[in-house]
């Protein structure tokens, strides 16, 4: 059965019944992969840093986020008995399907979280039917998480949920451990609803700060522990209200969310915060229930347009919009993507809840700022130019994550164009440094990109009136001890909404080559062939084309390097704007080119292409500035390409370099 015929991919996802059916349609395929006694679900053969039994437990436990919500809300799924049997077998030390007791920093700890949630939500389905011996085994197995060494991260929430689940079935649990974990987790809080994923010094604020873990966990806890811990629960609810004001800027009108950070194979867990708001009955001033409903359902609907997210028999693939091991982390097993089932939490609500009775509303694009700076994550969000994207500086993973520089250190992340990860270590096509500046000391064979920044900050032209002031991001990184690169990122201006600006200062003690690339784009023609180079003077259609080189007579500036790629994904390009900031600048050191990236680099397009400007830096140890304009207009979801009439006039405009940025460049 081809994946395109899966019921989930045909689901309109408009109603509570639609969401129930979406959940069960993704539960059904798991039966084929479930062990005889129900305790393990083995979905594939790829490895992780943890053992395969833990990976099979992951496949068993993560669907419970959705199944427990479905049953709590009065829904029915006869196949739930597979999990009930699995609880008995998986926690029995004498069973051949025993999961094993957890050690310190063990993956089993992670999967105790959905199990604790399930005991709290649906004990009559999963706990009460067990024999007394099986109940005792489950209690002992879950309780062994207490007193064990855990990472100082969102993982502490997994122990909170294990103890919370035990308390809800009146089983022995550690109230002391529960409070200690919550008290420590609260120290991660920064402000404006944001918590970092770790202690002081960690600058990692991604979906784990929101939908994947911290905000989601706080909201669920605030509902389940409201009587026992009312003051803390109200604090969590208020933090969620604040967080929503920023998190809405991660989404676009088509339901897509900006790919940023790690664990993106969790797919529509990216939007589960909106469902958790409803579950916790948290009203957000300025964001109606209809808008919240739309945020969640539109996002899940987006995934119904991505058949590559599923195998032919309806199991999640490891990847993003298609199977892609290049983008994964070493903790992604075939069962990992089922963290997505967190998004099904509104199924726990009755049909009379305002989340379900409200009419779905479109994305509130007219009522939110088109440019929105957020200090704690170090982002500037923009909804200009036909897509949502964020400019970013200052974040990095707190450990050496695979493709960590790409997941946190790039300059821009788009809901429509995604980002690319490396497939190798040679040449631009393998490094795939889209939306970032990369530097090479060997003429372009091996490249370095920004991973960690120094002194990253948001600056304002008028700090006393930030709400009405031009803002920009500014950060420094050092690829080698004798090389310093400072980058200033300027969001789009309403007069040129398809452009944003980057100004770079390079100080180097060695000869370098630089690449300053824009968004990568879908890399094929409509007939499936590779995009063809087209001379700019003969480019008269709005169809698939690759253009690069010096400006020709139809370009606004005759002495500026540029590159452009138009395809079914939309139009992306870059142009050298240094002459607008430094009138005596010679463009001879920069040239435009379009690089065909290695297959399976861009996480959204398996075949992709990248416009960039290549520069030369002679190692003078003096500050050298150059400025790049980055152009992008995506096609609408479900459409192939953008007609030339929709973008060519904007491409012919030069975005103005703001006076405040000119002062920085010229040292004023």
From TrEMBL:
A matching Pfam family: DUF2264
Domain DUF2264 positions: 15-362, 370-662
Chain segments carrying region Disordered: 517-554
Protein known as: DUF2264 domain-containing protein
Organism, scientific name: Tulasnella calospora MUT 4182
